[in-house]
Amino acid sequence: MSDVKIKPLADRVVIKPLEAQEKTVSGIIIPDSAKEKPQRGTVVAAGPGTKDEKIEVKVGDVVLYGKYAGTEINIDGTDYLIMKQTDILAIV
Description:
6-stranded antiparallel sheet; 6 strands; mainly beta; elongated; 10 Kd Chaperonin, Protein Cpn10, Chain O; single chain
C-alpha cells in the first residue's frame, strides 16, 4: 500500500480515493455521468507534520474528506489526491 513514489511534505497527506458506487442499494446501476465524486479514501503516504500540527493519520487509515478538497495527481496511471491534513474530516 505504501509503494507510492511520492513523499508529501509538512502536514500534507496522499490519499487514494475509493471507487464510486456502481449500484444503489436497490440494485439500480449508476451511469458514469451520474456518479458523485467519492469523499472517502485510504491514506497511502503522510508527511512528517509541522511543529504546530502533528500528523494524526497513518498509512492505511480510511478517511472522509471534503467534496472539493485536495489536488488530483496521477502517478503511474493511478489517481491520488494530495491535501492538507486539515482537509480531512474524520477517520472511519
